[in-house]
């Protein structure tokens, strides 16, 4: 059992050319081989249903891509001379439908394979129609798209951790679909980690990743995200992989940041006036007090 590979999408690298091909590994299909010439990016798999499905799909896509390329070239030529392109557009649409049909067939027929996971992750989000002003419609479409963006990926499936699509999706959700304001980022972090928590491996990877990212951010106000991570994950026992001495440092850093977060009441700082007399911050009677720090 210890010698088994963890499920995911792997690379086989040829040396010294650095050519490679991808192959699938799942938990119950790990005795297999590939046959092909050196540097062959589409070798023939043997003894693995997952890779047979995957490589057959790659060959299918290769054929359809070549056909689509020829259609596009013909369409460009017809456009150049002002000819009707309706028939070719119809052919291109039928080709796209054939590819989608093939993807759905694999997802339905081989749901436990890594190939199905890969294809499912790339399914588009069908956004419903909305009514209202143009601004209202665009907002509703955005909210729907964001809330359903990760529908086709099981974030609690540890196999997805070793794929190229999971991190791409998470980054896009966090950086493009989430408003870059600390409050919104905190909600997004909790949402992502909440869905990942059943998979200890995925949860650990992204909890650590988020903490590292927001602990070194140079964007003003993002330190509250770091403090949130410590308070809600690390100091409450949800990060058992962290050594005790490191955990103490994390908590100590968060405690130092806590009183100076944006929105918190400033600590009772003492100043000195031009004559060298001490002045306490909260002894100053004014509607607004502006403090300027320099070094």
Question: What is the element layout, followed by pairings?
Answer:
Layout: E1 8-13, E2 20-25, E3 33-35, E4 44-46, H1 49-80, H2 86-109, H3 114-121, H4 134-148, H5 164-177, H6 182-196, H7 200-215, H8 223-234, H9 244-257, E5 270-272, E6 278-280
Antiparallel strand pairs: 1-2, 3-4, 5-6
What descriptors fit this protein?
mainly alpha; extended
Task: Sum this structure up briefly.
It contains nine helices and six strands, in the order E-E-E-E-H-H-H-H-H-H-H-H-H-E-E. By secondary structure, the protein is mainly alpha-helical.
Sheet with most strands: strand arrangement? 1-2
H and E order = EEEEHHHHHHHHHEE
Report the span from N to C terminus. 59 Å
User: How is the biggest beta sheet arranged?
Assistant: 2 strands, antiparallel
Number of strands: 6
* Basic shape: extended
- By helix and strand content, what is the structural category? mainly alpha
**Poorly predicted ranges (pLDDT <50, ≥5 residues)?**
none
Please compute the radius of gyration using only Cα atoms: 27 Å
- Estimate percent helicity: 40-55%
- For the residues shown, what is the average pLDDT? 94
Work out the strand percent.
5-15%
Query: Can you count the helices?
Result: 9
Description:
The chain is mainly alpha-helical. It contains nine helices and six strands; from the N terminus they run E-E-E-E-H-H-H-H-H-H-H-H-H-E-E. The chain has helices spanning 49-80, 86-109, 114-121, 134-148, 164-177, 182-196, 200-215, 223-234, 244-257; strands at residues 8-13, 20-25, 33-35, 44-46, 270-272, 278-280. It has a two-stranded antiparallel ribbon. A two-stranded antiparallel ribbon has the order 3-4. A two-stranded antiparallel sheet has the order 5-6. Helix 2 crosses helix 3 (114-121), helix 6 (182-196) runs parallel beside helix 8 and helix 8 crosses helix 9 (244-257). The longest helix is centred in the N-terminal third of the chain and has 32 residues, at 49-80. It is extended and about 85 Å long.
């Amino acid at each position: 059992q210890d010698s088994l590979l963890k499920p995911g999408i792997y690379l086989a690298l040829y040396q010294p050319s650095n050519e490679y091909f991808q192959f699938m590994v799942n938990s119950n299909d790990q005795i297999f081989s590939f046959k092909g010439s050196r540097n062959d990016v589409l070798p023939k798999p043997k003894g693995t249903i997952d890779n047979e499905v995957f490589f057959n799909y790659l060959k299918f896509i290769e054929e359809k891509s070549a056909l689509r390329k020829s259609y596009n070239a013909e369409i460009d030529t017809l456009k150049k001379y002002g000819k009707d392109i309706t028939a070719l557009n119809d052919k291109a649409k039928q080709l796209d439908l054939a590819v989608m049909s093939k993807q759905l067939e694999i997802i339905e027929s081989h749901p436990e394979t890594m190939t199905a996971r890969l294809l499912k992750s790339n399914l588009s989000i069908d956004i419903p129609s909305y009514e209202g002003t143009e601004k209202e419609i665009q907002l509703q479409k955005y909210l729907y798209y964001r809330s359903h963006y990760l529908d086709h990926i099981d974030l609690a499936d540890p196999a997805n951790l070793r794929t190229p699509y999971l991190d791409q999706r998470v980054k896009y959700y966090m950086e493009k679909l989430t408003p870059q304001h600390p409050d919104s980022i905190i909600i997004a972090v909790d949402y992502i980690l909440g869905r990942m928590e059943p998979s200890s491996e995925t949860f650990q990877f992204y909890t650590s990743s988020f903490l590292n990212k927001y602990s070194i951010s140079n964007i003003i106000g993002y330190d509250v995200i770091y403090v949130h991570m410590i308070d809600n994950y690390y100091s409450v026992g949800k990060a058992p992989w962290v050594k005790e001495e490191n955990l103490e440092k994390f908590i100590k850093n968060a405690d130092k940041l806590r009183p100076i977060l944006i929105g918190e009441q400033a600590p009772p700082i003492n100043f000195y006036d031009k004559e060298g007399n001490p002045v306490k911050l909260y002894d100053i009677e004014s509607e607004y007090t502006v403090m300027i720090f320099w070094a």
